[in-house]
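Colleagues,

For the teaching module next term, I've prepared a clean inverse folding example: a structure given as tokens, and then the sequence designed for it. I'd like students to try predicting residues themselves before seeing the answer, so please don't circulate the second half yet.
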């Protein structure tokens, strides 16, 4: 089967439109329609059906989309690996596995930098599935990932990026703004954040190891939402300092040091060892490391 057909499938799946897919691929719309017809014949499935002005994938198309994207990404990496890389002319696409914290802190300065030095590079940020981190990197579904320390396969390279102390975010008129003692912190009500649906939060695990416990009334999936909960209530939010400084400025909140010493939140950058010889991949890692190192200056 012609592998170019899968490039067409991927473009249609991403764009939700034959016209936009044709534009992205620099093909005519009849050429894209013809490729889709061949795909439909091969899979014996319509793959995409019209829904209003857009087209939507069928269940079969949804089921193969990730595999198609991973295969195309792997082929792309193979083409680029070991070749000369010119950031200013590159049209490469990289998929970053980022959690809530690093997407908020890293993407804006990275996008601004790339807009100047590498305007043709495309980035996609994807939510991390920590239990699948090694697999996604090995299959090329992720170019690299930034996350807290995780158990990974021997094929995965990783280095520390930064270590972030935890702080406490609260409303400017919160009764505890004058003095946040450990006793007051534990007696207060809290909003917690975790990308996992179950399990003990990082800070609660640390508290339990010291025989301490707090009252988490709300558990959310993102610091963005949790900071707005803080702005609308008297709940406290424990979060990395750099993130707390940003939300304190954005929402007029107050940031306090944590009233006890807990381990800092470490962040590592992860990639598959097959990318070690890829000049473009190495260049992007360097740009990310530089942007992360400069975060304190941008606060």
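(Answer key — instructors only)
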């Amino acid at each position: 089967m012609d592998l170019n057909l899968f490039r067409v499938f991927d473009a249609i799946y991403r764009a939700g439109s034959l016209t936009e897919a044709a534009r992205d691929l620099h093909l005519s719309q009849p050429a894209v329609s013809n490729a889709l017809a061949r795909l439909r014949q091969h899979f014996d499935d319509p793959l995409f059906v019209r829904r209003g002005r857009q087209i939507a994938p069928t269940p079969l198309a949804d089921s193969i989309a990730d595999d198609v994207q991973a295969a195309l990404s792997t082929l792309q990496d193979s083409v680029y690996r070991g070749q000369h890389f010119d950031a200013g002319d590159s049209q490469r696409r990289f998929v970053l596995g980022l959690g809530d914290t690093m997407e908020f802190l890293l993407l804006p300065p990275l996008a601004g930098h790339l807009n100047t030095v590498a305007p043709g590079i495309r980035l996609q940020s994807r939510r991390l599935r920590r239990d699948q981190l090694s697999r996604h990197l090995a299959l090329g579904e992720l170019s690299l990932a930034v996350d807290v320390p995780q158990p990974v396969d021997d094929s995965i390279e990783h280095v520390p990026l930064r270590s972030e102390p935890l702080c406490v975010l609260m409303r400017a008129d919160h009764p505890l703004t004058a003095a946040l003692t450990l006793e007051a912190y534990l007696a207060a009500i809290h909003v917690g954040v975790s990308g996992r649906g179950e399990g003990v939060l990082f800070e609660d695990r640390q508290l339990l190891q010291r025989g301490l416990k707090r009252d988490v009334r709300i558990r959310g999936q993102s610091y963005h939402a949790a900071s707005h909960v803080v702005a609308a209530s008297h709940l406290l939010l424990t979060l990395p300092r750099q993130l707390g400084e940003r939300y304190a400025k954005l929402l007029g909140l107050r940031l306090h040091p944590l009233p006890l010493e807990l381990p800092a939140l470490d962040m590592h950058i992860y990639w598959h060892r097959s990318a070690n010889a890829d000049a473009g991949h190495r260049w992007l890692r360097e740009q990310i490391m530089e942007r992360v190192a400069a975060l304190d200056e941008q606060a």
